Amino acid sequence: MTTTRDSLLTEADLERRAGLRRMKLIALSLLVLSAVVFAVAFAFQDRYPWLGFVRAAAEGAMVGALADWFAVTALFRHPLGLRIPHTAIIPNRKDEIGESLGEFVEQNFLSDEVVRSKLATFSVADRLGAWLSDPVNAERASAEGAVMAQGLLRFLGDDDVETLIERLAREHLFDREWAPALGRVGAELVAADQQRAIVDALVDAAEAWLTAHPDALGEAVSGRLPRWVPGFARDLADERAHRELVGVLNAVREDPEHPLRVAIDGYLVDLTDRLQHDPEMGERVEGMKAEFLESPRLRSFAGQLWEAVKTTLGESLADPASPLRSSATSALVDLGVRLSGDRALSAKVDAWIADAAGYAVQKYRHDLASVISDTVKRWDARETTEKIELQVGRDLQFIRINGTVVGAIAGVGIFAIATAVHALFA
Predict the structure, then answer these.
(1) Crossing angle for the helix pair 135-155 and 323-341, to the nearest 10 degrees
(2) In 3D, which of 277, 292, 291, 344 has the Cα closest to residue 129?
(3) CA angle 158-163-166, nearest 5°?
(4) Taking 60 as the threshold, does the pLDDT of residue 3 lie above it?
(5) What is the pLDDT of residue 294?
(6) How far is CA 45 from CA 38, 40, 309, 417, in A?
(7) Which of 77, 185, 355, 397 would you call most buried, defined as having the most Cβ atoms within 10 angstroms of its Cβ?
(8) Is residue 91 within 8 Å of residue 384, measured between CB atoms?
(9) How far, in Å, CA of 351 to CA of 339, rounded?
(10) Do residues 115 and 361 touch, judged by C-beta distance below 8 A?
(11) Contact, 254 vs 196, CB < 8 A?
């Protein structure tokens, strides 16, 4: 029946536990065998003197096996449940072991010299370039980056982003005077005749609307005539006004030097000049800006802008065939090719990575090492002991086996020397 603790062990841990049990059984079997041999040799050594050597070997084997059993067991628990000092070392000193391990890693692994020397053995830029040069890898990197970006979009709070947009707009757009800047930009556009395209677009739109709505001028013309004017005269007036207005629009479109165009150009030149130099015009623009700032429209504009950006960006990131994803993949491939072929760029990237890694380990080495000590502190003492024993316990059982063998050799050696000395001086 599987217990709760067994369910916490991985398949590899279960295999290690089975191996540990086998090794414990072997070590215990050698101890029992040594005890049986010792008992038999002790009983018959008076009849067969040569059994004294066997007894000494078995005695030494038992002493070695028991001593190493005690030493190995004392690492993980109290031998026979007796609270002997300096036993159950791992569970009792778990936190100290974790701190020592963290300090060891910090001093010997998380150092600027170690990181730089390791990075000097290979070129990160070359490997990255070779990997990104493959379009399949670049597309994979682009896909992973898109997933991260989508997660970031979901993480960002709408209210926080809208507040940020509003604050940036106030700081960088609305804190400065608008009139001079609008005047300068407008003057440059007029000087480049860019306003003509706008006038053409307005003329085309007006003509299209009048064509689609021939009765649109009815009230504007016939409605202002005296009541005694006959109806047919009113219709003629409306038709004439419509025709004349369409004719004026056609003339404006066809004639680059039409008086209306010239008048519009003159008005725009005057307007841009007043925006730059007329204090009264500047005050009017600032008043309009202040009115916009005080209205809810700015917040609404920030919300609409963020919603549009988020929606468009989210759809582009989610679509593998979107121009954004395709452009990102192409850019990564180009970067990989440059890193692989441009030695100067590759060297710069390697130097930057080495500096960044060195700075990171120097600044955060203690925080990184504390992850080890803090993690060990959170572990349960019993589970920690079991985990460590499963990792190294099988090898430690070889210490018991070796202790049994070495004890046997030492026992028979000591007995042989003692017997020889006794015979020599007897």
Answers:
(1) 130
(2) 344
(3) 125
(4) no
(5) 65
(6) 10, 8, 96, 18
(7) 397
(8) yes
(9) 13
(10) yes
(11) no
Question: Are 166 and 302 in contact, with CB atoms under 8 Å apart?
Answer: yes
Return the exposure string of 123-162: e unless at least 16 CB atoms fall within 10 Å of the residue's CB, then b. Answer: bbbeebbebbbeeebbbebbeeebeebeeeeeeeeeeebb
Q: Kindly list the distances between the CA atom of residue 301 and the CA atoms of 154, 177, 240, 287, in Å, as whole numbers in the listed order.
A: 21, 20, 44, 19
What average pLDDT does the structure give for the chain? Answer: 80
Q: pTM for the full model?
A: 0.48
Structure tokens given for 149: 């970006």
SS3 193: coil
Give the SS3 label for residue 209: helix
According to the 3-state scheme, what is the secondary structure of 88-136? CHHHHCHHHHHHHHHHHHHHHCCCHHHHHHHHCCCCHHHHHHHHHHCHH
Q: Give the N- to C-terminal CA distance of the chain in Å, as an integer.
A: 66
pLDDT at 1: 45
